């Protein structure tokens, strides 16, 4: 008997979206195997319970066992720091996380094995909307991103992990570190309008792109303000 919390129902087929479901048991499958066979990646459940007591994913089951499943706590601790790797479909989310100063790797032509290998090599949490990817055995750490569109997805990531924010310290294009530079160092690279209007500049250490305050306008100012508020409310913060 499996009792999935409603927050996990999105992973289940409609006929199984209920507070208690009965699944056949072959006498040998582990708890983790039963959970994933339902379509729920193990990254999306907190410590499960069996017959009311906390249990690990490798725990063997028995006929008639009652398994309780809840999502991980929010904010979910990140023992290795807030370092993420985003699936190829999450490019807009990647740029927004970088604007907020969150360490975010993204490469729009990585295939699935590349992503899994890179997450392990760089000890990054893989963020994706592909459940199959999250169920790969070799995956170091991952999380399913909820929501359609970058705004909802960003809200979900901030709510789930409450990463420390350092707005405007990273290059939105490449994740490189931004350093302040005097205007005279970049003046030749600027359009005449920008040269006239702005005085404070930063440059990406990795790709050389030049940023100036106000470059992204009010839309990104609002993004930063909303994010700082959301993470502050969740208990994390810069
Ligand atoms: Zn850059």
Automatic annotation (TrEMBL):
Pfam families: Mut7-C (PF01927), Ub-Mut7C (PF14451). Residues 83-222 form the Mut7-C RNAse domain. Residues 2-71 form the Ubiquitin Mut7-C domain. InterPro entries: Mut7-C_RNAse_dom (IPR002782), Ub_Mut7C (IPR027798). PANTHER family: MUT7-C DOMAIN-CONTAINING PROTEIN, MUT7-C RNASE DOMAIN-CONTAINING PROTEIN. This is Mut7-C RNAse domain-containing protein.
